[in-house]
Specification:
Elements lengths: L1 E6 L4 H12 L4 E7 L8 E4 L2 E4 L3 H6 L4 E4 L3 H13 L3 E4 L28 E3 L3 H17 L1 E9 L7 H11 L30 H14 L5 E5 L9 E9 L5 H10 L3 E3 L11 H4 L5 E9 L5 E8 L3 H17 L7
Parallel strand pairs: 1-2, 1-5, 5-6, 6-7, 8-9, 11-12
Antiparallel strand pairs: 3-4, 8-10, 10-13, 12-13
Length: about 325
């Protein structure tokens, strides 16, 4: 049994991390829920038991085995090294460490061997990147991907509680907090994170850069347009792929159906395809609308959907923690 800290335990993702730890029966011997100073002393529920929220300082002093962070980039930059210094492995859900040289950026179905015993900080990728690379990696291994064009349709839950409140307020005709610069209900915003000098948003560039790092192949060309839509339950992506090698649709189906973490839902005659409504609270990546791009050689279109709070955040982080346990490093530093 292990001593586990969940940093940001009261947030949307932190709450989901507690849920996933419980559902997957992670061997938690002692739980240290951590949140902001104003929450210290309050409680969170885990496996029908209340646990008092502790401060960052107290959590570090307790020398946890693993700390799972979902508290924002500035918190991670300050505190992840302090946990690492006491021999605690940190799985960080923010963007703070993802592109840092020497920091593993891990999706367990894709690059589990990037985790190393001596590297105590491990980055959890961006939610939209995670689900895409789970679908891309087994195809890349066989046909080698040259280029990916992705357009996303991302749930308001990816922004957090404030965004969900904004959408619900708008639907109910109420005024309240604004997470976005515009109305989100009955609207679509081609704007996720801040705009950069090249005209892309930070979210779009995360998908470009993280994909190359996770897949271990800088030759893959990626271009992205990320869009916020007024739904909950998961992110959706239209993914257009150009391979170096020819393929058959039957081969694509066979590879995806046999790949870990993927469920193929593709029967248009029965109106069966992935949707946020049906991916909600599930851990898998759902793939459908599998069809040839008839405008280029070796082109393929996929529709990829996954629950962004689970596989896109909490579940992936817990799977990394499970990998650490399976390697037998914890308690043997």
């Amino acid at each position: 049994m292990y001593k586990i800290a969940v940093v940001g335990a009261t947030g949307l993702v932190g709450s989901k991390m507690l849920q996933v730890l419980a559902e997957r029966n992670f061997p938690v011997g002692e739980l240290l829920p951590v949140a902001s100073a104003k929450s210290v002393g309050n409680t969170v529920n885990y496996k029908e038991q209340d646990y008092k929220i502790v401060s960052m300082e107290d959590a570090v002093a307790a020398h946890p085995d693993i700390a799972i962070f979902s508290a924002g980039g500035s918190v991670s930059k300050e505190w992840a090294p302090k946990f690492a210094e006491v021999g605690c492995y940190v799985v960080d859900n923010s963007s703070a460490w993802r592109m840092e040289a020497g920091i593993p950026l891990v999706v367990p179905e894709v690059n589990p061997n990037d985790i190393e015993k001596s590297k105590y900080i491990i980055a959890n990728p961006n939610c939209s990147t995670i689900q895409m690379v789970v679908a891309l990696k087994p195809l890349h291994d066989i046909f080698k991907i040259k280029r990916v064009v992705v357009s996303t349709y991302q749930s308001v839950t990816g922004t957090g509680v404030k965004a969900v409140e904004q959408m619900e307020n708008e639907r109910n005709g109420n005024t309240g907090v604004m997470a976005y610069p515009h109305k989100i209900d009955r609207n679509v915003l081609p704007h996720i994170d801040v705009f950069m000098d090249n005209g892309y948003t930070k979210e779009e560039m995360k998908m470009v850069n993280e994909t190359k790092k996770i897949m271990g192949d800088n030759s893959i060309q990626v271009t992205a347009t990320t869009v916020r839509v007024p739904v909950t339950g998961g992110h959706s992506e239209a993914v257009n792929i150009e391979f170096e090698k020819p393929y058959t649709i039957e081969e694509i189906y066979n590879i995806l159906e046999k790949s870990p973490g993927i469920i193929v839902q593709d029967n248009p005659t029965e109106n069966i395809y992935p949707m946020p409504l049906t991916s909600h609270d599930k851990d898998e990546v759902f793939v459908g609308r599998i069809r040839r791009d008839e405008t280029i050689a070796n082109g393929l279109n996929l529709w990829v959907v996954s629950d962004n709070l689970r596989k896109g955040a909490a579940t992936n982080a817990v799977q990394i923690a499970e990998l650490l346990v399976s390697k037998g490093w914890i308690g043997k530093q």
